[in-house]
Amino acid sequence: GESVGLHLPTLSVQEGDNSIINCAYSNSASDYFIWYKQESGKGPQFIIDIRSNMDKRQGQRVTVLLNKTVKHLSLQIAATQPGDSAVYFCAENYNNDMRFGAGTRLTVKP
Amino acid sequence: DAGITQSPRHKVTETGTPVTLRCHQTENHRYMYWYRQDPGHGLRLIHYSYGVKDTDKGEVSDGYSVSRSKTEDFLLTLESATSSQTSVYFCAILRGGLANTGELFFGEGSRLTVL
After folding, report:
1. What does the pLDDT look like over A81-92, one tens digit per residue?
2. What order do you get walking across the sheet with A62-67 strand by strand?
3. Cβ-nearest to A102 among B41, B106, B109
4. Residue A60 forms contact with B (CB below 8 Å)
5. CA distance A8 to B24
């Protein structure tokens, strides 16, 4: 089974709203986490990462939250734009072994 | 970004034939990876390389072999393709940091169909 999963396979939001994409991971020893964005027909693109000694990290319009107590990771996208429509993956890493979730498809409605 | 290129981008082949996918990087990174992506699954690691002639198996290595004779090229070979190997294959390089940190930068993918 998947060591990393996503609560919702699809998410639809209105343009301008904030998006929250969730991810559960299973290995409490994982020490590094990454969010990727994948547009149709393209390879995954790095968005933001976070190490296990942090619980929050912010980028440009994106924030990743890590809750190690419940092994939960989330990606928040502020003021979602049509260009944000894509599949988003979380990944967890432990001891050089990186595992990816199946992905959540984000659709932004105009 | 042309730091990593995959070829071919699309291939249709028949069961039992050999197939080689090529990954070429221009950034001189030590670590290179081959993943496959299938509906309902996350990216799954096939093989990876941590240097010239240094490779190791990943999660789904059965039926695949790899070679890295020079830093810039990482080849994935299916000795005898099967329909279960129909997938999209992604090569990745590790930019910066140790093997368990740093950004995995992916190529555009190679779509393989085995009939």
Report:
1. 999 999 999 999
2. A4-5, A19-25, A72-77, A62-67, A56-58
3. B41
4. no
5. 35
pLDDT digits (tens, 9 = 90+) for B59-81: 999 999 999 999 999 999 999 99
CB B114 within 8 Å of CB B16? no
**Is A59's Cβ below 8 Å from some Cβ in B?**
no
Would you place residue B98 in the very low, low, confident or very high pLDDT band (cuts 50, 70, 90)? low
Token pair of A75 as six digits = 């990606």
Q: Which two tokens stand for residue A20?
A: 């929250």
Alpha carbons A51 and A39: distance in angstroms, whole number: 25
- Cα of B82 to nearest chain A Cα, Å: 23
| Six token digits for residue B58 | 């990943």
The 3-state DSSP composition of chain A as helix, strand, coil percent (nearest 5) reads 5, 55, 40
